[in-house]
Amino acid sequence: MRNKEANKKGALQPSPKVLVSCRGLDGEDNALVVGYCGNCSYAPPMVMVGIVPTRYSYKMIKESGCFVVNLADKNYQKTFDYLGKVSKRDADKLKEMNVKVEDGKVVNAPILADCPVNIECTVVDSIVTGSHEMFIGRVEYVHADETMVDENGNIDFSKINFM
Ligand SMILES: Cc1cc2nc3c(=O)[nH]c(=O)nc-3n(C[C@H](O)[C@H](O)[C@H](O)COP(=O)(O)O)c2cc1C
């Protein structure tokens, strides 16, 4: 029986949890865990990520106008947990976890090379929804592990062991 009112916060589930990587104007790299995210257009392809303004990464994305969404699998659990708990304000997170980064192909942001899928995005708009600012990113390029992409470029997401 659905006769009890439940909490409104984060009510829409299940929701993906991703790693968003970014680069500041001074060239420093960072990444954080984001749970407020999703696809928001297929023509043109767009995704959105919600960043709380107090995050160290917020200013980096706001100023650079780009970010990368990295899909992580279970092998990445330890790094994922650390990146979602510690702020760059307190530690050079990527260095601490020996995270392998490569430059984006299109945007000026790092991609996390050990994640099976990396989605390069340019910010085209943002909306302050409340606690989060939702950055709308035009998808510029999607990198995927060759073992999970078919001849039409479709990713077989069942091959990713999501956390
Ligand atoms: C499961 C999970 C989901 C999270 N979702 C978000 C989110 O949607 N937006 C956000 O700004 N922070 C989110 N965080 C918190 C940030 O990842 C965390 O505060 C991080 O340390 C910020 O790093 P930074 O200050 O270096 O940018 C989440 C953390 C976890 C563990």
Descriptive labels:
163 residues, mainly beta, Pnp Oxidase, Chain A, seven-stranded antiparallel sheet, 9 strands, globular, binds flavin mononucleotide
Write up this protein:
This protein is mainly β and 163 residues long. The chain has a domain at 18-35 and 56-120 and 142-151: Roll (Pnp Oxidase, Chain A), CATH 2.30.110. The chain contains 3 helices and 9 strands. It has a 7-stranded antiparallel beta sheet, with helices on both faces. The radius of gyration is 16 Å and the shape is globular. 32% of the residues are buried. The mean pLDDT is 97. The chain binds flavin mononucleotide. The site of flavin mononucleotide has 20 residues, from strand 2, strand 4 and helix 1.
Helix and strand layout, with pairings?
Elements: E1 18-23, E2 29-34, E3 37-42, E4 45-51, H1 56-64, E5 66-71, H2 77-83, H3 93-96, E6 101-103, E7 110-112, E8 117-128, E9 133-144
Bound molecules: flavin mononucleotide (FMN).
Flavin mononucleotide (FMN) binds at residues 17, 30, 32-36, 50-52, 55-57, 84-89, 132.
What fraction of the residues are assigned to beta strands by DSSP?
A: 35-45%
- The overall strand count is 9
Low-confidence stretches: none
Please give the radius of gyration in angstroms. 16 Å
CATH class of the domain at 18-35 and 56-120 and 142-151: Mainly Beta
CATH topology of the domain at 18-35 and 56-120 and 142-151: Pnp Oxidase, Chain A
Q: What's the mean pLDDT score?
A: 97
Order of helices and strands: EEEEHEHHEEEE
The computed structural class is mainly beta
What is the CATH superfamily label of the domain at 18-35 and 56-120 and 142-151? Electron Transport, Fmn-binding Protein, Chain A
Instruction: Based on Cα principal axes, name the global outline.
Output: globular
N-end to C-end Cα span: 30 Å
Bound molecules: flavin mononucleotide
The major beta sheet can be summarized as: 7 strands, antiparallel
